[in-house]
Amino acid sequence: MTYLRCLGASHEVGRSAFLLSTDVNLLLDYGIKIFDQSRKPKYPITFPEEIDAAIITHAHLDHSGFVPYLYSFTNVKWYATPPTRDICEVMFKDSMKIMGEELPYNESHYIKALRNWHPVFYRKEVRFRDTRINFFDAGHIAGSAMLEIRHDKRKIVYTGDFNTENTRMHKGAEPIEDVDTLIIEGTYGLREHPNRAELEKKLISNIEETLDEGGHVLLPAFALGRSQELIAILGNHKFDAPIFLDGMSKAITDIYQKYPYYFDEFEQFRQALESITMVTSPALKKEVLKKPSIIITTAGMMEGGPVLNYLFNLNPNSKIIFTGYNVEGTNGHRLLNEGKIIKDGYELSVNLPAEYLDFSAHVGRTGLLDFIKKANPSKIILVHSDSQNADQFTTQLRDDFGYDAIAPQPDDKIDL
After folding, report:
1. Mean pLDDT over all residues of the chain?
2. Cα(157)–Cα(148) distance, integer angstroms
3. Which end of the chain has fewer beta carbons closer than 10 Å to its terminal beta carbon, N or C?
4. How far is the C-alpha of 274 from the C-alpha of 304, rounded, in Å?
5. Cα–Cα dist 18/48, whole Å
6. What letter does residue 174 receive in the DSSP assignment?
7. Percent of the chain at pLDDT exceeding 90
8. What percent of the chain has pLDDT over 70?
9. Among 120, 152, 114, which Cα is nearest to 21's?
């Protein structure tokens, strides 16, 4: 029997992990949720099956972050694109530091994971017995992949995280047609994203206005993907102020430069980088705030990283601009909704304006529906969506569009 076991990202966003059983057992992603409501890590559900390989769609921790744990009980290979592997090395190390005493594996498992990576490339088929997998650019971050899986005359597609719209960094994902089972993210099944060009104009306008008033612009940004897009946007615009990059974004940006094939307009990105000053020393950190400036720094949700140190040293004319989603319970969410953050166990008020601009790297509602229409699947399995969105969007897919669609619960086993 061909089946899918849902180990995470079912009626939730985070800890994506699915066990696909054909004539082999394949683990599709193996992620963690760094902070759930308890502010502790949340891991995928354990599974009884032995696996033949792990396929990792991209390096965001909610899709890759539990890979080292595999090597506490198995020696299988994990397959991913070269940028994904290199970025994972940085992301795994950072997540180990964040989890601290909660870490369920050790340094030896991390090292073993890096040794057991096997490279894959876009549009190059990989075979496991009679199961074949093709990898397609997902348009999400550098190296991100959608999986087309063929077995027994059936085509199963797992999108992972994807985006069909062109951005500064990536061309949109192309449709995959004639699909039997579509395992698709539904993160924004009920929402459209703002027009990207208009959003960029709004960002530039906000920055220029703040700089004109003598303030700093603090851009808490995800180290992977969002920081690089901000570099591409801001580095090609002439500001009368320096632009600084701090935190783990520096290491990820170095990796991006190794792989020009994996994102769009590399030369423009390279030129944009020439306008960015990397913060590489304590002395340079002090320079950042001596005059009006633009600061791109981690962490994107203000949970750790250099961002909090900058926050409490901004002058009163400064502004905080988020460009990524902030999970409930994080400092970013708290700041946007309550004007407060928690630092060293204390709740502190922040008397500075904060704004959220939706630069999502996920496909919006129209893109999802278009992708589904072109795939024309016999069955849709909606994942990577919170409970309310998952239920509403699945009902719409069934009642309004006539699809056989389900939104699985954690640990569901679905006969394909």
Report:
1. 95
2. 5
3. N
4. 27
5. 13
6. P
7. 91
8. 99
9. 152
From residue 350, alpha-carbon distances to 30, 249, 354 in Å are 36, 24, 9
What confidence tier does 37 reach under pLDDT thresholds 50, 70, 90?
A: low
> By 3-state DSSP, what share of the chain in percent is helix, strand and coil, each rounded to 5?
30, 20, 45
Q: Are 70 and 76 in contact (CB under 8 A)?
A: yes
Residues of the chain with CATH 3.60.15.10: 3-191+361-415
Q: According to the CATH classification, is domain 204-356 in 1.20.120.790?
A: no
Structure tokens, 303: 């949970």
Can you give the pLDDT at residue 376? Answer: 98
The CATH number given to 3-191+361-415 is 3.60.15.10
pLDDT grade for 327, boundaries at 50, 70 and 90: confident
Q: For residue 219, give the 3-state DSSP assignment.
A: strand
Q: Are 357 and 203 in contact (CB under 8 A)?
A: yes
Per the listing, tokens 């990059």 go with 245
What does the chain come to in residues? 416
Interacting residues of 142 by C-beta distance below 8 A, sequence separation 6+: 83, 87, 169, 170, 225, 228, 255, 256, 259, 262, 263
Contact between 231 and 276 (Cβ < 8 Å): yes
CA dist., res. 403 & res. 387, Å (int): 19
- Asked whether 177 and 374 are in contact (CB, 8 A), the reply is yes
Instruction: Measure Cα distances from 287 to 4, 109, 281, 299 in Å.
Output: 53, 40, 10, 20
For the stretch 18-29, pLDDT in tens is 999 999 999 999
Reading the block at residue 334, the tokens are 């708290």
pLDDT at residue 1 greater than cutoff 90:
no
Is 0.70 surpassed by the pTM of this model? yes
Rounded to an integer, what distance in angstroms lies between the CA atom of residue 25 and that of residue 51?
Answer: 5
Contact (Cβ atoms closer than 8 angstroms) between residue 278 and residue 328: no
DSSP alpha helix (H) spans, 123-186: none
- Which tokens go with 361? 């790297």
Q: What's the confidence (pLDDT) of residue 34?
A: 82
| Residue 54, CA atoms < 13 Å, CB-side half-sphere | 27
Q: What is the CA radius of gyration of the chain?
A: 21
Task: For 179-189, write each residue's pLDDT tens digit.
Answer: 999 999 999 99
Residues 69 and 90: their CA atoms lie apart, in Å, by 16
Mean pLDDT of 146-156: 97
Q: Which residue has the tokens 């409930």?
A: 328
